[in-house]
Every structure is written in C-alpha cells, then in structure tokens.
Amino acid sequence: VHKSLLGSLSPELQKHTNNEMKEGRGGVMELGEVDEATMEAFLEWAYLKDYTVPEPKKASSLIGHTKVYALADRFNTVTLKNLAYSKITALLADIGMVVLKVDVAALMEAVTYAYDNLPYSTRLLEYFAQYTSWAIDVFRTNKEFQALLVSCPDFAKALVTNSRGAAAPPWL
Fold this sequence. Notes:
By secondary structure, the protein is mainly alpha-helical. The protein has helices at residues 3-8, 11-17, 22-26, 36-48, 62-74, 78-95, 101-117, 123-134, 136-139, 143-151, 153-162. The mean pLDDT is 85.
C-alpha cells in the first residue's frame, strides 16, 4: 500500500505512517490480529472506495462487514466505518427476520465479535441490540445468544433497554 494513500485515509493512520517509530521508519505496519479477508476488504476500499465480502447477500457475510467496521473504528476511518455500517444494516433489512439456524449463528458471531472488539458507545452495537431485541423469539434458545448474555453484560443491558414489556400482566 502506498504510504501517502494510507496516511490520507485518517488522522490515526497518518500518525502511524509518519512517525519515528517502527511503522513510520520502516514503512511496515504489522496487524497480526487482522485476518486476510478483512485486510483485503480494507485495501480494496482504500483504492476503490468500496469493498466486497464473500456471499454478500447472505447472513454469513455479516462477520466480514463487522470485522471491517471494527478495523475502521480502530483507525478512525469514518467513511469506511459508515460504509460497513450501511452494508450491515442494508443486509439485515433485506434478510428481515433471521430464521435459519445458520443465519442465527452468523448473526451471533457478528454480534459477539462486535462486542468483543468495539467500544461500548458504538452505533453498530446499538443497532445489533435493537435488531436482536426485535427478533428475540428467534434467539431465546440459541446457545451462542445465551453465552453472549452471560459473557457480555453490556449486550444484556442494551438488549433489555431495547426490549418492550409484556403485552399482558403475568397473572392473566
């Protein structure tokens, strides 16, 4: 990647590419925690201002978009973050209510990754909580969903905040 291009993508990347540290002097940034598909999507966006993920119309692509969003958040590349967010929300709007086990698992993988890798105040976390609250009947018995509730109190809190009360009192 051209250093000038990388530096132009965000102030954060500008700091990483133009400094006296290893990245700036050597011209190499090591991001071992970023998988190959996410890096390819990032580089595609850097040059073309768009990116693709495998199976773009399926729920299985949610994890790819979520990883791109998290990378964009990490380096404060606002336009990429907005693009990933719009791809996630458009995909879930197209899918509607997830019903297939494979789609539920894909969504739980994306939500878990988001809560593990993003700051709590991120709008993607809020969106995932709203969507999950809306589709709660699908997720109730899902093991990944139950594990996420236990392991991530922030998700549980956001889910309760977005939930509506029961339609009738319990004694009826």
